[in-house]
Design brief:
The chain is α/β, with parallel strands linked by helices and 214 residues long. 32% of the residues lie in helices and 23% in strands. The protein is built from 6 helices and 10 strands; from the N terminus they run E-H-E-H-E-E-H-E-E-H-E-H-E-E-H-E. The structure holds 5-O-phosphono-beta-D-ribofuranosylamine.
């Protein structure tokens, strides 16, 4: 008898362009990401290109009203997000360019099962304008981090990082493009590790895995 293994189900939360979502979809299509299904894409922005990317690829994608606050998710809207994600039978919540702070009720609804991709080498530069801040500080390298989400913004345990050099004539935009290429690699790589049961919050070390180009 043939037993089909249940796929690992991820919900992807987005706000805009959706290039990280696209990278996950591509990785699933070309079988670099195995045994993973995007069960739902949720956006807090009805105009997000990410919604179209999902729908064009046959993935359920919804806009959910984010409520009364500009930068956080709380109250009735938060409840709606939680219920929708739960209904989709989600194993992992992936924040992929979701430009909103999630609060304790959301975090507790999916314990140790929410990850975020952030464009800096955390703990350096949590928050916005990461590449600008790296240039201003005279840093020689930039990068990105996939980390667990907790109640400190961009402050949860780091899972994987990729580094890129900052070159002499770099601008925010050129660094962002170089970093984005790496984001598109480490986010699917971390999702695969979750799907394979290789990442557990309690046993994960304090230092992140450093991504090496193959
Ligand atoms: C990425 O740079 C990600 O690190 C940050 O928001 C951006 C989202 O880009 N959290 P995209 O929507 O995936 O193209």
């Amino acid at each position: 008898m043939l037993f089909l293994k249940r796929k690992f189900r991820i919900a992807v939360l987005v706000s805009g362009r959706g290039s990280n979502l696209e990278a996950i979809i591509k990785a699933i299509k070309n079988k670099k990401l195995k045994n993973v299904k995007i069960c739902i894409v949720i956006s807090d922005n009805p105009e997000a290109k990410a919604l179209k990317i999902a729908r064009d690829n046959g993935i359920k994608a919804v806009y959910l009203h984010p409520g009364e606050f500009k930068t956080k998710l709380e109250g009735k809207a938060e409840e709606n997000y939680i219920n929708t994600i739960k209904k989709a039978r989600t194993d992992l919540v992936v924040l992929a360019g979701f430009m909103r702070i999630v609060k304790s009720r959301f975090i507790q609804a999916f314990p140790d099962r929410i990850i975020n991709i952030h464009p800096s080498l955390l703990p350096k530069y949590p928050g916005l304008h990461t590449h600008k801040r790296a240039i201003e500080a005279g840093d020689k390298e930039a990068g990105c981090t996939v980390h667990f989400v907790n109640e400190i913004t961009d402050g949860g345990k780091r899972i994987m990082q990729a580094r890129v050099p900052i070159l002499e004539n770099d601008t925010e935009e050129t660094i962002a493009a170089r970093v984005l290429e790496k984001e598109h690699k480490i986010l699917p790589a971390v999702i695969q590790m979750f799907a394979d049961g290789l990442i557990k919050y309690e046993t994960f070390p304090d230092k992140p895995i450093i991504y090496q180009e193959k």
